[in-house]
């Protein structure tokens, strides 16, 4: 950059409203359909350098689809993209990268078994195929230091925390010298502290004259950190203006359109019970190993009473996944016992547990929550297909009616009940699972990150449903990385750290500071 | 001459020689599987390589050209597997089996004219063509190494080079990424199709080379179904070596030792020679069954996307 340009960009940062006529990236009339579903409908927006541009929208609004088009993963059906006034074609991610557009995807897209440097090497065009990966160690260290990211090139990705993985993705964008960084819901799994730190880095990036597109469905976040906000609803842009022209309520209305009245506020009322109810889930001295045979759950004991929500907070990767899988029967336990409504189900088949009233809202929705190749309607009745069948036959009309009713009730966006479940957006898949699981006569619910990636309306709906089944007398074990959620819903809060329960407090005695410390393993130190 | 040292020398000589095709084919297959592509066509590539090697050597009179042509023939057949399973996303097992059969069929047909044609004077020369020095009782052992041809030593260097490539270079990272998760690999900027084809091709070349060594270096002529299952054993050695090419050295030498033992015991002990010949295959089957238990597979480091076709423009999640 020569002096004149430096002055120009300083000037622009100081006067955010006086924009040059040519944006860094211009999206013009982009449409994209998947079959009958219109994911994007004539979308146009301008992205300027030196700005954080928030892209807001509810589940299924088309945010990820737009990001994927900008990164060359999907091709638009119509419309075009201009970079600094020049039309460009983005056929593959490689094309996008060569134009300086890099996408940090919703879930870190990294190869777990490889090191940070090996992952990053794959994206560096200038590194010859037969050159040693070590050649980029210096570069990685240099950039990490510059942005205050504590990562070492030799670290194996599977040992990293979620936020660290995201930093690897950020490093990737920086090494590629991205001019435009698109982040797809980067804050979903982050703690407040990690989120702040990320925003500091993003600010630094735009101060260098880059553009950041921040995809989110959290209104507060968009207001906190962005310079400009575009709202997508059902694939169309409903508004695109500088942040200062919005307020919170207006944004909520824009995002939800006519659905805004459907959002019944959650009543987080915690009832006082008279008689002590019985335990519906008891876990005694449980030890569970992870995929590579190391102990991931250490001597965990806990119990959940009928009509109670027990929340387990903790940073992801501290044994929550293994604990959940052991409870539903997807993973064998090394030692200890799991008792469901008085029945010992340790190491029994998942079916035995379902029979004893266990409902499961899994974290990995695509893998454990739905059968992706089957239709939405079929997925609704996976667990109680018997209620829809006579002898050997399933009454499809009954199934379709049931499915249509649920689709309306939960506002699931799908082109028809016959659509393959796996093409729904993340949020809609979760709504499907929740409605199926909680619709049953459940005694115990295991909910693992049940609102991860859901928009406000859907998250509230899930919370309401959980509170409803609780009020109907079910016991709920809520394992969540979202501390706010745990605190809002739980009657008792436990914290899991390195496989053990390190903190246990009832709702009326809770201290958020202590919980956060416990989550970072600082409490007993 | 001391009988004991003669037997030992013979054993070492045979083991070193027999290991070469196994090392080449299984380290090549390891690369292919690291990229996520199982190639059950190794046997086919070896057969094609063996016959092409013989024909080329007979025509050109140059055994090195024979090796090269053998490797290229193996590569060509493997690329057919690549075409079906990588480019068109077909089932790798079916395609691989088909390749194995095609290799067997073609070589049986074309090879008829070459059965028994002697390669006299055309085989790779020993690295030490002179009289072996030293005391008499050590001579057989020394010659078991010094009378080997250069390919025996090259076959030791190749897995080491490949291991370096796989675990130190960008190409290696790309190959492993394709084997772990092709969707992620693509999003990181790897061209999965090309990379998988390169890996399959390299595997095919090495299988072909191994086959050529079998005909040119070990047997010294072409016979129908020359490999007699060597290719299948090589495939079986890959998980045992934990998909690490340098470890195929270890597993191949063990297997070759077993093969040499079964040769040398034939007619000496009161066990049917059929049974003795079966030993390497039985061992392969047993070991393969053990390592295919899911838990072992994960611990041995099996590529997560092994055997899964990759098709573009699927939903990413
Ligand atoms: N590959 C695909 N095949 C079919 N439909 C798809 C595909 N990808 C996306 N869709 C559909 O396009 C719409 C928009 O999906 P998209 O993933 O872009 O939403 P989103 O705004 O990112 O939602 P979320 O907040 O839940 O992640 C959804 O209705 C979804 O079902
Ligand atoms: Mg999305």
What does this structure look like?
- The complex is a heterodimer of chains A (525) and B (317).
- Helix content of chain A is 33%, strand content 25%.
- Chain A has 525 residues and is an alpha/beta fold.
- Chain A folds into two domains: 3-100 and 178-257, P-loop containing nucleotide triphosphate hydrolases (Rossmann fold, 3-Layer(aba) Sandwich); 279-519, Rossmann fold (3-Layer(aba) Sandwich).
- In chain A, the strands form five sheets. Chain A has a six-stranded mixed sheet, with helices on both faces. A six-stranded mixed sheet of chain A has the order 16-19-20-13-21-22, with helices on both faces.
- In chain A, a hairpin with a 2-residue loop joins β21 and β22.
- In chain A, α15 runs parallel beside α16 (456-471).
- The longest helix of chain A is centred in the middle third of the chain and has 16 residues, at 192-207.
- Chain A is globular and about 65 Å long.
- Residues 1-17 of chain A have low confidence and may be disordered.
- Chain B is an all-alpha fold.
- Chain B has one domain: ABC transporter involved in vitamin B12 uptake, BtuC (Orthogonal Bundle).
- In chain B, 72% of the residues lie in helices and 0% in strands.
- Chain B has helices at 3-34, 42-60, 63-87, 92-111, 139-146, 150-168, 170-180, 182-188, 192-219, 230-240, 245-265, 273-291, 294-300.
- In chain B, α3 (63-87) runs antiparallel to α9 (192-219).
- The longest helix of chain B is centred in the N-terminal third of the chain and has 32 residues, at 3-34.
- Chain B is globular.
- The chains are: A alpha/beta (525), B mainly alpha (317).
- Chain A binds chain B through residues 64, 68, 73-74, 93-94, 97, 103, 105-107, 109-114, 118-119, 121-125, 127-134, 172, 291-293, 366, 422-423, 426, and chain B through 165, 168-171, 173-174, 176-177, 180-181, 183-191, 298-299, 301, 304, 313, 315-317.
- The structure holds adenosine-5'-triphosphate (ATP) and magnesium ion.
- Adenosine-5'-triphosphate (ATP) binds next to β2, α2 and α15 of chain A.
